[in-house]
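Ticket #4471: structure export looks truncated?
Reporter: QA, pipeline team
Priority: medium

Steps to reproduce: submit the single chain below to the structure queue and open the exported record.
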Amino acid sequence: MTMPIDLVLVRHGQSEWNVAQHRSRQGDHSLFTPEFRERHSSTARLTPKGCEQAQRAGEWLREHFTDKRFHRHYASPYVRTMETAAHLGLPNVRWYMNLYLRERDGGDLEGLTDEERTIRYERSLKTRNAEPFYWTPPNGESVATICARVDRVLDTLHRTCSDKRVLIILHGEMMWAFRVRLERLSSHRFAELQTSTDPKDRINNCQILHYTREAPSDSSMSDKFEWMRSINPWDLTTSRNEWEVIQRTTYSNDDLLTLAEAHPRLFSE
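Actual output as written to the record:
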């Protein structure tokens, strides 16, 4: 058995949760009403813009997979991902809900404005800034933790979707976890990409990450994912849109020591 030929990941469209958090970071906390705070983040709906983004993503998928249909369709069970999946407008689709695809649990930080987070969890947020990959929100999940969920999904795909094409609708943090596992990103490289100021390094709403074992140049087949492309279908200027060879880093002894020595010893004994 092998992995799927194609694995296509699509982040959900803009949600009410996204809008509230974005405004809060700009200093406007007005959307954090009592009703909003009482709702679990899993029930956040798409905005009209989010629905349009999903429709644009569906247009891109239909255009680029005209002769290659998807054999299996998965989605996170959250409302915003289910809506996104439906608004793609793909014909004759049966969706599988997969609990492991749910968004990263923000723990006690969920439902708080940006200001409230800063005041209540200042120390924890400093840890996040120092090491975003391993940082765990109080009573939540780290990126390292959700990578274990990704491994469960990949194991399922290996067993049930060998040599097939798979489409998954999920969340931004989960897409980062897929990148970590499929591309073997180190925690250092993950932090570099997450803090990058290059808009093409972001995972936008309805961003598409396409992994393949089929060589774009001659259709020869590899035994693992060797190529990927990143597309923002509603604004192609913010994505690279071209196939890239996946570079999985390995380390020599000297490389490991260099990485270790980047952290000064605190004790000499």
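Status: closed, not a bug. The export was complete when the record was re-opened. Leaving a note from the reviewer for reference: Strands lie at 6-11, 72-75, 95-97, 165-170, 208-212, 227-231, 244-245.
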